[in-house]
Amino acid sequence: MGIKVVPLGAGQDVGRSCVIVSIGNKNIMFDCGMHMGYHDERRFPDFSFISKTKQFTKTLDCIIITHFHLDHCGALPYFTEMCGYDGPIYMTLPTKAIVPILLEDYRKISVDRKGETNFFTPQMIKDCMKKVIPIALHQTIKVDDELSIKAYYAGHVLGAAMFYAKVGEESVVYTGDYNMTPDRHLGSAWIDQVRPNLLITETTYATTIRDSKRGRERDFLKRVHECVEKGGKVLIPVFALGRVQELCILIDSYWEQMNLNVPIYFSEGLAEKANFYYKLFITWTNQKIKQTFVKRNMFDFKHIKPFDRHLADAPGPMVLFATPGMLHAGASLEVFKKWAPNELNMTIIPGYCVVGTVGNKLLSNAGGPQMVEIDKKTTLEVKCKIHNLSFSAHADAKGIMQLIKMSQPKNVLLVHGEKEKMRYLSDKISKDFGVPCYFPANGVTVNIESSKLIPIDISSKLLKRQILEYSQANSKQFEDQQQQQQTHQQQQKQDNSDENINNLDPDEQPFKKIRSPITQLPIQGILVAKDYQNLKLLDPSEASSELSINNINLNYILNYKIQTNNKSTTTSAMDGLEILQDRITELLPHDQINRINQSQLVIKNQVVIQFDKVQQQFTIRWSNHHEQLFSDIYKLLEKQFGEQL
Amino acid sequence: MNKSPINTNIQSGSGTTTTTTTITTAPTATPKKSTSSLSFSSTSVNNTAQQQQQPIYPPTSNITQFAPFDQYLLALTSQDHRTRVEAILYLQSYHLPLNNQENGFDLVYTVKKQLSSEQDKNIRVQLVGLLKSLALDPFVESTSIIHYLLSTVIKNVHTSKKVICASLIAIRSVVQSKNLKLSLLISSSIQPLLNHPNPLIRKECILIFGHLVKTSEELDEIQMILVNFLRDPDFRVREASLRSLSLLFYRCHNLSINKIYQQATLLLVDSFEQVRLECIKLLWIFSNVFPNHILGTINDRKKSDKIRLVDDVFKKICNAVNDPSVVVRNCACKLLGCIYDVSLHYLIQTLSKEILFDHDNKGRKKFQIGHSRYSNAGKNQKQQQQQVLSPLQQQLQQQQHQQQQQQQYTTIQVPEGDIDFMASTDSSLSLVDAGATGAFIQGLEDEFYEVRSSAIDSMCELSLRNNEFAQKNIDFLVDIFTDEIESVRINSINSLRKIGKTITIKEDQLHIILASLDNSSQAERQAIHRLLTTIHLTNFSCLHATVQALLVNLQKYPRDMYSIFECLYKVATKNQFTEFIAEDLLRIDSKFASVEPNMDDIFYVAIMIVILNSAKNNNTILSLLPPYWVQHHLYFKDKYPAYFQQNIITTDTNNNVNNYSLNSTYEMKLKSQEDLTLFLKNTLSMLYGSNNGNDDSLYSLLKVGKFDQLSILMEEIQRNLLRISNINRILKPTSDFYLMFIKVLKIIIHIKKELFSSSNSQQHIIAEKLIKTSFKMQGLFIGLDNKIQSILYEIRLYGTIVLTISKMLNLNDPSPFASPPYPSNIFTNLQSSINIYKTFFKDNLMTIPEKNQEIMDTIGNYIIEQQQSNINQRPFKMQRTGINTRQLLLDKLIIFLKEYQLPQLMIQNQIKKKVVNTLMPPFEKPIESFDNLPIKLVINANIENISNVEYLYLQVNYLGKSQLYTIGSQYFVPIKPLSYSICLPIYVSLPKSQKQNKEMVQLTVNIIEIVPIDPYSTKILSFEHINEHFKLVNLRGNRISFNIIN
User: Fold this and answer.
1) Interface pTM (ipTM) of the complex?
2) Where is the composition biased (Polar residues) (chain B) (predicted)?
3) Chain A (533-562) residues lying within 8 Å, Cβ to Cβ, of chain B
């Protein structure tokens, strides 16, 4: 069967994450994002790859959205409403709540400000969200009979999740964006040891190792504080949701602590909405916030006020969180234009900027004064300080390795990163873990062979019985050997010679072997293949009912006559049964042997032995279930009485 | 041969074995039914029918909680299910441990008998449990029980899994606690069970093995078994094997490291967290037992490498800090602190994300994957260098820069502080098995505060043993000061304090520490205060910053006052830089005459604490001070004796300021402790007389009866003691105690001199005063020895006698002949006082002084006589004789009082006084109470030398009434041994005022301790009994007074 993966976006690139995975006969689309760097048709993934005839609903079994960042969900309404996909969409509850806000914001910027046409409408966003099925953390949802998905906590932003998808024996983990180090408001990503066939992981910081978190925080606060003290203005371009909440908590509590009264602003009304959702989904945050929210909700900021446009020209120091985070449009760019020429001011870019955005241009030569091209017409002289502090909540190289170690995949596929770095990391992964690692470009298909395992269900009844029998046999064998050894040792004592030491060793070998745990077990049963179900290994009794075949019971009777020639050995006729009973008891010490009356013996309630003393004849009745038992008894009979034959 | 199918029979069913008879009413199942029938009562026609068939609870089992033993034995074999279960439970909880051997024998016999016939497996489990408890009993022979369990219960094939399990647990607990010689038998009969399909049984077997080993041969064998079972498919068994291996270590067996170590390390990557947890614990034991064992490992380059075991384990545990499970991470962080003797090289690695690796044969090449702390320094230097460059060069550089950018293809920028390792090398360093690298950084960044806290503990622990590590630690511990969770912050503060002596804190680090003083949590601020006292301040600007920060703190949170004073006091005595900042602190400008500050201003007090205490080491400071400091010092040392030196004046200046010295007869310079002790001794000799027969002592005068000369001497003694109390902190409690004793003496002298000459009412008051003082002496000090206590009891007895006499006289007075005999209640006090006195002496094996014994006998006899006469009821005769005997008694008592010699009270050991420091409420405006609603008053106090806080209460006094409030134990925050700080709210509701107008009510709160009058009586405290059996001793703190408008 195997797994096929095609990245439609985010292959050797960051932005418009969209990965199509085919497991078995199921096709899943992980994320459906847009690219911040483009304004033409390249911003959306090339959906024609999936189906030339736009039969998306037929081809795809489901869409899974990991979190609310636009590069992971931006193309969703376009795909569902304008391209016509009508299948199930899964995302976590916070994601479902926040996605429409961001989409609407994005729509406004594109349509209202830039005047684009052929864009999705607010109604389309609403319709699209109606199709979304929420999934809770660690909840397993069966998409259909074969495909099941499960969500794991991913850190990164509120409601971000990693998804584990399983079809039959093959499984895929798609991480989305995740963070392995906890921060001020979110915990760290965590996943079971699910051992998927394929792990698709983001690699934004594939070759970076993070500085310690606290040092980073202090650097940030120190910079802001210094700048504000000198009377400068600090611009922090952020996205309305995600990192900014962490920074707000950080700055708010610092202001509280240092008793500062320099105003902090947060642009756009989005902030209140965002904070509302953070308050609402408190269970998705970290330990501290969960524990203390009864006393004071950390998202009720004391010092942070909403921003008004005219405040940008106000004199005096201030701190401003402005959207969007990559300085490509909106309030942040507007304010940046005003503040950039002053060298007292500072811009801190707390995250990652996509190629083509102003933020990216700024960062690529963050050394000193520069001219930056804002758009085709304007260039701007930037004198203010530019800093990039790693508050981006992506896992670093060590974190990626940690996640691989945690989930133990058989193959790894890298997306959402840069080619060179991916190549470097993939070398590391294949070396350290000994698993194949891929990093396909957009539109390139990767085929992953999976081991052709055939799963067989085993009935618990059969399994239990077999284990019991096997272990009993084992311990019996062990006891026998123990006795043997004891006698052996006694002999040794009598002999007391040196050569026995050599004899001892081979004896001890099996002895030791027995005392180790049972890790393998031979099982005898009936293999049943029925319809399209898995193969089943069943107990004979179960097999008959499973296949609705009648169980045939054969009863046998054996007459066994003792030759009376040799009366000297068997003293009296009555003794025949008694002797047999003794022998059987020796053979089966643990089994139930009942003497019904003088002439009848019942073994395990199943084998009945009658003795006719006149005719000197045994009559043995048994059924086909107890063939083995009978043959044992028969051997005894032969041994005891058969020599007269 | 004759085998032929005769009869074929077709069966449809499977026809397997018949099951054992099922029990219809299991006791556990019945309550469920009852609830279900209750909840669906509307449709309960069928249910009620069912109920009738099966009674939900047996009406009453015929067994009660306190039935005799035999009845339980009978009940054990009862037909009824529930009765059997109850019998087992009652036996287990009320009759064990047994009280004689016979019972044990009977019980074991009965239990065994029942076990053999019992059908219900749950009860069988219970019975085995009972056997287990029996086997642990000293009266029961446990060997036979183990034999029984092994042979009959475990060997039996039909025993259920649960019962086997219970028996194994029973055997384990017996083996664990009793020393039996059955190990061979047990091990041979248990070994077959090792292959049992049920993992719980395997687990129990494995656990028994851990306890079983005695000899080295057994050890080898069992060790092999345990190692084999590390591969068991069930995780519980694996966990048990690891635990047994650890147990073997704890039991001092020497395991073979070569056989176990490799196997055990495999379990580090087990899928179950419990297994991983046990595994790192086991490895930790290895590291501590064989730290220097050399391991051969093979590194990435296929070269054999040698590493010490302890280092290897350290690396492995460091790796476990990345574990997905919190429990494992927490444990790993804890264990890191208690691995001893790890190479420094690895220790340092835990603090940085740098990686060391073998690059080539030439040696080690350091490859840094940075932590900004170390890399930043370098960067800054570079930047500075850049600034020096000329503009032309800068331009050049910029051009180069831009060229580079054009060449650069990368789009994702590496943020500042982080390091892109791709560019550095193409080395073979492993990111996953990074070993010790950055383990503590990881631990400190953990999501869960438990883990962070453990990491801090471990860092502190390691720092105490390694100086270099400690020095590198500071940054991280200081970083944690901004943690989200308070307990973590406090932990890091305290950790830093513990290692504070070995490290030097840099100025910037100090500033971060000081910034935390703004914190809103009191506990945290106080922790920082304590931290500051241990830090060595390297220069005067540090000191200045510290003092300023503390002053700001004082301003913001005035209730930290004592903590801040204490901190300033210690800081000041330790450092030498005060002289540079003194002027600044006092805001003295040489150009202007300074205004004399207000002495009650706590900021001024704080500053003076710093200055005057550093003056002890550095006299030049005093010369800088404005002249009024001497007067201020006099005031301060009285008001805050704990924070001010009594005499900072050195010998040279002594004469100038000596005018305040009260005593000129003693020219002793009271400086050193020895001097003071001698002074105290001399004073005491004035009291008791010295050994060489000096007759001028107070006691000898008293003996002779020269009361007139006494007063001068006594005054002098009092003065001396007062002086000592003022000067010396250590001797203060002792001299305070003597002072109180002098007070007692005075009263006694007063009684002797003037008793019965003055009016009666005064006698009463004086006696009360005497008793009260003796209680105070007992209550306010701790560490009083028996001798002193006996004297205190004696004083109390004396007081009671006086009291009784005054009562007798009162009755006598009106008409001595017509009066009826004394009501018996006159003597109850006296009698109980005598009883207490006697029991005290008896309990402490002391002999009662003759005279006291005499008088007590007299009183005793009299009381008995009176009781008898009361019974005889012969009023007339008795009256006459009664008067006579009564007069006789009165005379005797008065003579006793007059001749009484107070024994010499000498304090041999160091005693401590209970001290309460209260903080005044911050508000000055009176609180208003509305409509009878309770008012919240916040009480802040520090108490010292209290051994038992449960006897402390708050006494609220208002309008002549007083009320007691309990203090919940959660409000006592321990500061030092026997010292606590209290901060609690109390809610007082005042009665509604009668008047229309509001009026001001003064309300005071005292902290009091309740001292039992009779220490041998039961100590049940209830408020009704306080007056009868307990005495309230006011712990003389400042009264906290509130003004309330009612």
Assistant:
1) 0.77
2) 45-57
3) 541, 544-545, 550-561
